[in-house]
Design a protein that fits this description.
single chain, about 650 residues, alpha/beta, Luciferase, domain 3, 20 helices, about 30% helix, binds adenosine-5'-monophosphate-propyl ester
């Protein structure tokens, strides 16, 4: 924690929607006083209702909260159609390909593309309201068209990150019982083509029987296998589709999309988001946190496979009528100046990325930003993990020339949009702190019973009132929804949403996120459950036991450290390679571990519980504070230590 404070640039404050902390507190206090009234004001102002809602919030079936009861709307209308009159010729999506190819899609063109796509889904594949459609797509405009086309016809999309393996894709297809998969032949990364369609083929060979058809967008034109009667080429089918397509009238609470994310137990869970509450908050946070203006060019570097890509590449910016940049490549190719070159070329005003990317860009090209004209930048954002002071300062001073606001946004797949963040024109910033909850968001640090911890003491980061863009349930598993989020903490005797993160207040009330308190590892801002990693490795015939731990990593934030106990008689020449192959195939390359150590046994209590804290201390090279004498086999600790030491040699 630091007490260094950076005050907002006065020029930014003057032009910002929220100009001072006084204004912030006025808003937050008005929400505290009249919570429903607060949300009603914005819902009326921001959403194009097709039929009015009768009630703001229904808490009668908590924690299955409902927002804007009986209201009717269409999210695609909110993001596209309603802008046509005023912004038809404005660029909606500015696409830059890996190899520098550029496509500018105006709102009018976006409307035509989305309508044609929606007609294709309906006419050729019979996709109807409520059907699930899995997207396994690269970062190309057609991915956004597909999402909006689903929203238009009321189909529920589930985007699966393109880095997930066939097995992981199959699991997600099966859980959602998807009817259609939309994919691409592949795309380009670092100047070379890579493939996606073969992964879909493999997933469907393994299972995914609900899938009737596969739609393939051609991007890199590499050779692909087409299964007759199942696989169709988008580029052929789209040609004769009409650019007119009436949108479906949706209820506020109809599901908009599913997005799978990892938890501390079991398989990834399908986080279910709704229509009205989600799109309202996506738009409001674009306006408050990024202070988006009509002439701005906004760039978020996330992948559409994650929630950041959903809310802050597609839905939020488009609902706000902004120009959103979509980038196929990586910010370090062909060199460490690529991102800055793009900022200069497109005159980007808001740039939103993850601390991992900032650390990589810093390491690879400390002075690189100085070679480009970055004077268009006003607001810099970060998300996904706590940002360390070194990365923060470089971002602020070198990228932002000491003139930009840095918004360190804390939120989750489950929250739908930002929860805790500085407001660029108002909040005095302390580097590394996400500062304060946004107006209307009752984020609080408490203990299990709702008491506030002392300054500097870690507590549970909770959100003590329902908010419009919150997760509605876990797809098909209401019980797990309650257990995962509403069974850890209570306030005033009522269960409240627990995020899984720990956090603390400083003496000025700033919030400092300390990281996950559950068994979730955050690698380069990607969430991975230790249970999921362990389950994948345990299936292997050579392995008797496994434990996965997160350890601090200078670039990735955290990396994965795995202990394995091999079965008796088993000899494996290269344990690390072997286990990483399993992880790549069961989950994806993002789940590969940096350290894999074979040990003779795991430290267990007499009742058989693995003492993860001991394993964590050893992996991190920390002193073991627990009493090891009560272990079933106390000697195993020294043996594990020796194995780890040998492995590091
Ligand atoms: O641990 C927190 C961390 O990322 C988790 C959410 O991950 P996911 O659902 O994949 O969404 C990531 C993008 C929103 C949180 O539980 N996290 C996210 N933002 C921050 C953060 N940790 C610290 N500071 C942040 N700004």
């Amino acid at each position: 924690m630091t007490n260094e404070v950076y005050y907002p640039n006065p020029k930014l404050s003057k032009e910002a929607r929220i100009k001072s902390m006084d204004e912030y507190w006025q808003l937050q206090n008005s929400a505290k006083k009249d919570y429903e009234g607060f949300w009603k004001k914005y819902a009326d102002e921001k959403i194009e209702w097709l039929a009015p809602y009768s009630k703001v919030l229904d808490e009668s079936n908590a924690p299955f909260y409902k927002w804007f009861i009986d209201g009717k709307l269409n999210v695609c209308n909110q993001c596209v159609d309603r802008h046509l009159e005023k912004r038809g010729d404005k660029v909606a999506i500015l696409f830059e390909g890996d190899r520098g190819d550029i496509r500018k899609i105006t709102y009018k063109e976006l409307s035509q593309e989305v309508n044609r796509f929606a007609n294709l889904l309906k006419e050729d594949f019979g996709i109807k309201k409520g059907d699930r459609v899995v997207l396994y797509m690269p970062m190309i405009p057609e991915a956004a068209f597909a999402m909006l086309a689903c929203a238009r016809i009321g189909a529920i999309h589930s985007v699966v990150f393109g880095g997930f393996s066939a097995e992981a894709l199959k699991d997600r297809i099966e859980d959602a019982k998807a009817k259609l998969v939309i994919t691409a032949d592949g795309a380009y990364r670092k100047g070379k083509p890579y493939m996606l369609k073969p992964v879909v083929d493999e997933a469907l060979e393994q299972g995914g029987d609900s899938v009737e058809k596969v739609l393939v967008v051609k991007r890199n034109n590499e050779e692909i296998n087409l299964v007759e009667g199942r696989d169709y080429i988008y580029n052929d089918l789209i040609k004769d589709k009409s650019t007119e397509c009436e949108f479906e009238v949706m209820d506020s609470e109809d599901p908009l999309f599913l997005l799978y994310t990892s938890g501390s137990t079991g398989k990834p869970k399908g986080v279910q988001h709704s229509q009205a509450g989600y799109i309202l908050w996506a738009q409001m946070t674009m306006e408050w946190v990024f202070d988006i203006k009509e002439e701005d060019v906004y760039w978020c570097t996330a992948d559409i496979g994650w929630i950041t890509g959903h809310t802050y590449i597609v839905y939020g910016p488009l609902a706000a009528g902004a120009t959103t940049v979509m980038f196929e490549g990586v910010p370090t190719y062909p060199d460490a100046g690529r991102a800055w070159k793009m900022v200069e070329a497109h005159k980007i005003t808001q740039f939103y990325t993850a601390p991992t990317a900032i650390r990589v860009l810093h390491k690879m090209g400390e002075d690189e930003p100085k070679k480009y004209d970055l004077s268009s930048l006003k607001i810099l954002g970060t998300v996904g993990e706590p940002i360390d002071p070194i990365a923060w300062k470089w971002y602020y001073e070198v990228v932002g020339r000491g003139e930009c606001a840095i918004v360190d946004t804390w939120w989750q797949t489950e929250t739908g949009g930002h929860m805790i963040s500085p407001l660029p024109g108002a909040t005095p910033i302390k580097p590394g702190s996400a500062t304060f909850p946004l107006p209307g968001i009752m984020a609080e640090i408490i203990d299990e019973n709702g008491n506030k911890p002392k300054v500097g003491e870690t507590g549970l980061l909770c959100i003590t009132k329902p908010w419009p863009s919150m997760i509605r349930t876990i797809w098909g598993d209401d019980e797990r929804f309650i257990k995962s989020y509403f069974s850890t903490a209570k306030k005033d005797g009522k269960p409240v949403y627990f995020s899984g993160d720990g956090a603390m207040y400083d003496e000025d009330g700033y919030i400092w996120i300390t990281g996950r308190v559950d068994d979730v590892i955050n690698v380069s801002g990607h969430r991975l459950g230790t249970a999921e990693i362990e389950a994948a490795v345990k299936e292997d015939s050579h392995i008797a036991e496994v434990a996965a731990i997160g350890v601090p990593h200078p670039i990735k934030g955290e990396s994965i450290f795995i202990y394995v106990v091999l079965k008796d008689e088993v000899e494996l020449e290269n344990v690390k390679e072997h286990v990483n192959e399993i992880l790549a195939s069961e989950i994806g390359n993002i789940a590969k571990a940096d350290d894999i150590v074979a040990v003779p046994g795991l430290p267990k209590t007499r009742s058989g519980k693995v003492m993860r804290r001991i394993l964590r201390s050893i992996a991190r090279g920390e002193e073991i504070k627990q009493d090891v004498s009560t272990l079933e086999d106390p000697g195993v600790v020294e043996e594990i230590k020796k194995c780890v030491k040998d492995a590091k040699k």
